[in-house]
Amino acid sequence: MNKVMSRTPLSPPRPRHRPPTRHDPRRPGGAPPRTPVRGRTGPAAAPAGARTPLSAPTAAAADLRPTDLFADRLLAVLSGQRPVHWMLRYTAGRAYDDLARLAEHSPLRTRGPRPVVRDIGYYVPAAGALEVFARIAAGGRLRAMAFRLEQGPDLRWRCTAVELAPRNP
Question: What is this structure's pTM?
């Protein structure tokens, strides 16, 4: 008997519960590349015809600043797209209570297109702390949102305060 166990198969094994895949040269190779969000650069902002490696989404997520991530997360909660408890692990102190109070009325909910973050700015008052402001386009109006991020001993950023500008009467 001449059996070798360390040999690799010539083709990867195909799952038995699915039909064989179709290899049609006329079909496109994959999904079209995503359009960049808010003018970001990096792998996610590749030209339309360029192909990116398979690890491009993880590299694009690593390039985002905590200010951008938290602005998007808070916007999703305050516009009613996500529940408030979605932010529980990203808040510390009274920030969760403030966020729950603000989100009761879904102040950034619009009837038309979803609200988007237009601009983000921040100030560094101390090491490991950021005070962030964001301009949000909700409907035909611009709204202001401010929040504070603090870096914990585990090096994770957590939101410690949230404020939303009151609506004009």
Answer: 0.62
